[in-house]
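so my prof wants the structure for this chain in the tokens format not the other one, which i didnt know existed until like an hour ago. anyway here's the sequence
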Amino acid sequence: MGSNKIERLLSAKKSLNLSLEKSKALGLALEKAGPRLEEINQRLPSLEAAVRPIRANKDALVAVVGHIDRAVGPAAAVLKVLDAVHGLEKSLLADPRNDLPGYLALIKRLEEALRFLKDNCGLAIQWLEDIVEYMEDNVLADERYLSELKKSLKGLREIQNAEEKSSLDGGLLEAALDKLENEFRGLLTENSVPLPMASGDDQASIAPSPLPVTVIQKLQAILARLIANNRLDNCISIYVEVRSSNVRASLQALNLDYLDISISEFNDVQSIEGYISQWGKHLEFAVKHLFEAEYKLCIDVFERIGLDVWMSCFAKIAAQAGILAFLQFGKTVTESKKDPIKLLKLLDIFASLNKLRLDFNRLFGGAACAEIQNLTRDLIRRVIEGACEIFWELLVQVELQRQTPPPVDGSVPRLVSFVTEYCNRLLGDDYKPLLTQVLVIQRSWKNEKFQEKLLINAILDILKAIELNLEAWSKMYEDTILSYLFLMNNHWHLYKHLKGTKLGSLLGDSWLKEHEQYKEYYAAMYLRETWGKLPALLSREGLILFSGGRATARDLVKRRLKKFNESFDEMYKKQSTWVVSDKELREKTWQLIIQAIVPVYRSYMQNYGPLVEQDSSSSKYAKYTAQSLEKMIMSLFLPKPGRFSSFKSRQYSGKLNNVAAEQNQPSPTAS
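here's what i got, hopefully its the right format
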């Protein structure tokens, strides 16, 4: 109540006190009538002056004494309590932190006083009104005097009818409760420290309560008083604001701007592959440490109030602190365009969510977390359906590339190197269990059973499609020799890169051996049809013992060397753009060519070189040395620098046709 209300109340109190005291004195005087009548008559002039407002005979005044006595008790008690309330003001306007238990005790006393006033003010006013009414009906007092009393009582009645405690204590309780709320906020703020993410912390330990026990006890004590005064909602708002802000501060240190990325901001999943990896680690940290701690703290602080309260409080903190942004990022990934790498990333997301499944169920399983539950279920559904869709489309995508042209340099097509390594990853320990689980769940939604052979057969069908593609591509080369090199490259790739792998084990040793033999066959065919023809050009026919004379022998050597040089140069130029992708195979191919040519050439030059070396045009015929031939041969088949074929190099984007579209480009550097 403001100062005006307090003045009115004090004025009414003073008026009533004076009137009651005067009336009481009059009643006592009347009881002593008789023997003391003479004394009264003698003192009448002074008494008359004291009770001039009262005009009544003796019998009427005796009758009013009972009314006065009944009203004096409650009225006096009310006035006494009002005095006590006024006495609490200084202590309650002080800082609660100096003596929180004492401050809470004072508030409780104030609450009790206000309850008493609320219960008794009306009764006291009613009885005083009864006295005035009786006096008015029996003309026991001056009309002007009664009018003043009625005016005071009307003011009190108006205050009482307002039914506001603040009207009875001048707003003291509200002010004290405001201070308690500020203390509640202060305790939370001072003891809320952002939790750093420890690097390499893979432990799934439950995070300890982030507040000391003494602080929690103070918070609970403050809550008890605030809740008793219908301020629970205020407490929850303050608690959620402070604690969610603290969690956000912990997360901001992780640089989570990527969570807000939109579909329009990246071309494919591969361009945000690093973010997806971070997402899993950051989500685990947030759930197992930050939200776990908030969940436990909500229980510690609000458990006495009820399950609905602390669960609702935790749900608001989780939502405001950022769990929804994590789920939205996952959804954004599922909405990106389909490609094989996306399947692996979807499996990564599934792995992260599956790892945290029990934590999610426990932390966010309540009705208050319905929004989080719905978004999580939707994300899991999108991840599973997206992964299954891409997986079952892989075979079709590989088959669609059969009509695309093969690499112009005869190297291993990007599609082949990509798919073989990709399938191996799908069958590896990291992804096969996840892919199997995803396929099982997806088929269970259709009430269909999943058998592991479905996964195995799908992978094997993809490899069969690759073999058919190789066969089709080899027939597209106009140059048969280049097709031999192409088949040698690819059969070796399948043998080398699948031997000792999960996929190689499924295909079996006979399958691998078959491709190794194919490699040997096409290597022999390639050598025979190209470099293998050169030694015959260095024929010794007609040169034995210079049967035709030295001049004739020189001419024969010149012609044969010229033909050899021309054939070698033509072959070298033609094959200078061809590539043998694998380093081991490339070196082996060099050696085969060198062994086929160089020994024959060296021997020929040792025997017949002198015939032309003394000629003025000797450099035209003795163009190469054995060493220079070796050097030139070993410069062949090298991949062009700056491009990579490794699966890990992350150059594959889009659907498989994007991979195949690059097959016409110069071959990548071998790994």
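also thought this was worth mentioning. The radius of gyration is 50 Å.
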